[in-house]
Amino acid sequence: MKDKKQDNEVYILGSETGKGGKKKIQSWKWILAVVCVLLILGSIFYYYSNKEQTPDYYFEPEETQQSISVSIVDTIQSSVENGYIEVLEEVVNDVPLLIYVPHKLTMSLALGMPDVTDPDILFATMAADIRRDNKQIVGDFVLAGKRLARGVAKKGFCAIENNKVTIGLGESTPLLQQVIDSKGSFFRQYPLVHNGELIENKPKNKSVRRALAVRNERIIMVESKQKESFHDFSQALIDVGVTDAIYLVGGDAYGWYYNKEHVRREFGEQLSDLPENISYIIWRNEE
């Protein structure tokens, strides 16, 4: 019909009307409109491509506005006189890191929140991820020889057998059955570094990162002092000499350690509504 506007015509509200009560935008205004649309689409694409992408099974406590890497001195003193955690600060490629080095300690796996008042726990940090929907542990999980969860959604793993800790990568490994038979422990996490090579991971968000790693044939824990992507954190681990590493729950995940002066320091944030299936790796004195 003659009164119908054409779908491909654009009009300016409030402009003077010409023949038929319509006035088309001049060609330069068309160009300006197209440029504006492209800028808007580009901004939307940039926003969503950089937006925190978190899988449904990825558990990491929400971050507070305060920097969670700042240690808080606690008044509780450890009764233990020999074991402790040494904390080193290193910066590589503008990525500041805290490196936690256990001294005279052995590592084990625990299910649930450890007793924060237990002076014999000299280092504790969250280990495996859990699903957001059913709050179950993600991937193979063995505690004292009992298999509590199955799956290989994450190919990195940590096996603890007879006080020996192995960090590896693979959908299948004989170590899984070995720790079951020997009453050991096992959990899975994102692989970060394997044999000195960087392993890419799908989540693209930035967060305070933590890793269980091997450097100079020694098991350590590494934490980023600021929010980092998986890629940048993994590369920083390689640059400081890490040969193998798997991820540990980062963000505001709560943990603590005792330094050489036997003063307890904390990181992260204690939450009152933590799922029951959270797991921790803990260090105690060598037996």
For the largest beta-sheet, the strand count, sense and barrel status come to: 7 strands, antiparallel
The coarse silhouette is globular
Fraction of helical residues:
10-25%
Question: What's the total count of β strands?
Answer: 18
Q: State mean pLDDT (0 to 100 scale).
A: 81
Low-confidence stretches: 1-22, 46-58, 62-80
Report the structural category. Answer: alpha+beta
Q: State Rg.
A: 26 Å
Residue fraction in strands: 35-45%
Q: H/E series, N to C?
A: HEEEEEEEEEHEEEEEHEEEE
How would you describe the overall organization of this protein?
- It is built from three helices and 18 strands.
- It is α+β, with helices and mostly antiparallel strands.
- The protein folds into two domains: 51 residues, no CATH class; 167 residues, no CATH class.
- It has a seven-stranded antiparallel sheet, with helices on one face. It has a six-stranded antiparallel sheet with strand order 1-17-16-5-18-4, with no helix packed on it.
- β6 and β7 form a beta hairpin.
- The radius of gyration is 26 Å and the shape is globular.
Please provide a brief summary of the model.
The chain is an alpha+beta fold.
Descriptive terms for the model:
six-stranded antiparallel beta sheet; 3 helices; globular; alpha+beta; disordered N terminus; seven-stranded antiparallel beta sheet; 2 domains; 287 residues; 18 strands
Summarize the topology.
Elements: H1 27-50, E1 72-77, E2 84-92, E3 95-103, E4 105-111, E5 123-126, E6 141-143, E7 146-149, E8 156-161, E9 164-169, H2 174-181, E10 185-189, E11 191-194, E12 197-198, E13 210-215, E14 218-224, H3 230-239, E15 242-248, E16 255-258, E17 263-267, E18 279-285
Antiparallel strand pairs: 1-17, 2-3, 3-14, 4-18, 5-16, 5-18, 6-7, 6-10, 8-9, 8-10, 11-12, 11-15, 13-14, 13-15, 16-17
